Amino acid sequence: MNVQYYYALMPLVVGTCLPVMAASNGALGKTLGSPFWAVFFAFSIAAVIAGLIILFGVRQAPSAGQFAATGPQMWLGGLVIAANIITFTIAPQKIGIGVTIILFIAGQMLSSVLIEHWGWLSYAKHPVNWPRLAGLVLLLTGVALIKIY
Predict the structure, then answer these.
(1) How far is Cα 76 from Cα 64, in angstroms, rounded to an integer?
(2) What count of other Cβ atoms lies within 10 Å of the Cβ of residue 137?
(3) Are the CB atoms for 39 and 25 separated by under 8 Å?
(4) For the segment 21-35, what is each residue's pLDDT rounded down to a tens digit?
(5) CA contacts within 13 A on the Cβ side of 70
(6) 25 and 42 in contact (C-beta within 8 Å)?
(7) Mean pLDDT of the residues in the chain
(8) What is the 8-class DSSP label of residue 123?
(9) Are 102 and 147 in contact (CB under 8 A)?
(10) Beta-carbon contacts of residue 72 (< 8 Å; ≥ 6 apart)
(11) How confident is the model at residue 98 (pLDDT cuts 50, 70, 90)?
(12) What is the number of other CB atoms lying within 10 angstroms of the CB of residue 55?
């Protein structure tokens, strides 16, 4: 399989799992009496899996120099992961999985366009133009129509 297809398939497959994560984390939080216990255990499972991948697949730890070369913006992912899991544990129970996913996609598209427009986080600039805005509106309209009907 062409490696480009593999990288395109990854987000598609994981994207199909987000509603599953929302439903299972919400049910777990409800059963355990707190969504934050569900988040804790979700992070624990993720840490164990990452640890196993490192143990069996990645032999060399990052050097002190590599850590020193990082900037604060490079550590934002951890905050986003925490917010993601907390949101997908709490919000679907209150507003439904479909609405949660729609708002999640809207937020992703908006931030993607802004990151590329301004060249934030070391990305090449790709200015916002009318065709990109039209695509964003059409995408969000399509998602909303799927949810409504």
Answers:
(1) 20
(2) 11
(3) yes
(4) 999 999 999 999 999
(5) 11
(6) yes
(7) 90
(8) P
(9) yes
(10) none
(11) confident
(12) 9
Query: At 35, phi and psi to the nearest 5?
Result: -65, -25
The rounded distance, in Å, linking the Cα atoms of 60 and 54 is 9
Rg (C-alpha) for the chain, rounded Å, is 18
- Position of tokens 């509106």? 137
Q: How confident is the model at residue 134 (pLDDT cuts 50, 70, 90)?
A: very high
Residue owning tokens 């200015």: 127
pLDDT over 90 percentage in the chain? 57
Contact 42, 89 (CB under 8 A): yes
- 78's tokens: 């951890």
